[in-house]
Amino acid sequence: MAIQLIFVAETNRQCGSDDIYIRSAINRFYDGLNRTDIKISTIYMNGKGHYKDRSITKQINDKVKAYSNNGESYVIYCFDTDKYESKSEDAKAFCEEEQYCNENGYEFVWFCHDVEEVFLGQTIEDNKKKQEAVKFRRSNGIENIKESYLKAKSKSTGKSNLLLCLNKFFSGN
After folding, report:
1. Largest Cα–Cα distance of the chain, in whole Å?
2. d(CA 128, CA 131)
3. Euclidean distance between CA atoms 74 and 7, whole angstroms
4. CB–CB of 44/9 below 8 Å?
5. Which of the four pLDDT bands, split at 50, 70 and 90, describes residue 31?
6. Alpha helices of the chain — where are they, by DSSP H?
7. Under a CB-based contact definition with an 8 Å cutoff, are residues 112 and 160 in contact?
8. Contact in structure between 147 and 119 (CB atoms under 8 Å)
9. Contact indicator for 43, 60 with CB cutoff of 8 Å
């Protein structure tokens, strides 16, 4: 039976940069964009502070319901850690986001310190995020990313647990 992976990303629909990086990783490490048994969907939070908004919950529920005749759906929230190790408000927010995911049965993916730092090795100004993500996709920048950087068990600069989470759904690859 097929599955749907619903990624809830911090970015907004107009930028869509998080989605570009996540789909690049899925395609490289799992050939997941070419599989007919896995559907990839994205919901945009329009900023990480909106992760609990009713509108996000409604979008999740609508996608789950629409896919229910095809198979199971799994929700994967994706968060930047920001400066969790040096800013107490970032650490508190990060803990609350993880707790929210645990309480709701959602998967929890983190990017330390942000998704661009993991995939590009640097922080990018907000007004250049889409442009840099598109350039990353066009240049096939994912080929330069070490798999180990996306399989981190502990948070350190430029690392993520993305592939650890995705391995649950792409077993046998």
Report:
1. 46
2. 5
3. 9
4. yes
5. confident
6. 17-30, 54-67, 88-104, 115-119, 129-138, 162-166
7. yes
8. no
9. yes
Phi-psi bin for 140: left (phi > 0), alpha (psi -120 to 50), beta? Answer: left
SS (H, E, C) 5-49: EEEEECCCCCCCHHHHHHHHHHHHHHCHHHCCCEEEEEEECCCHH
CA distance 58 to 56: 5
What is the per-residue pLDDT across 61-114, written as a single tens digit (0 to 9) for each?
999 999 999 999 999 999 999 999 999 999 999 999 999 999 999 999 999 999
Q: pTM, whole model, 2 decimals? A: 0.95
Region of 16 please: left (phi>0), alpha (psi -120 to 50) or beta: left
Per the document, the length of the chain is 173
Could you tell me if 121 and 114 are in contact, meaning their C-beta atoms sit under 8 angstroms apart?
no
Tokens 């090795």 -> residue? 121
How far, in Å, CA of 82 to CA of 123, rounded? Answer: 11
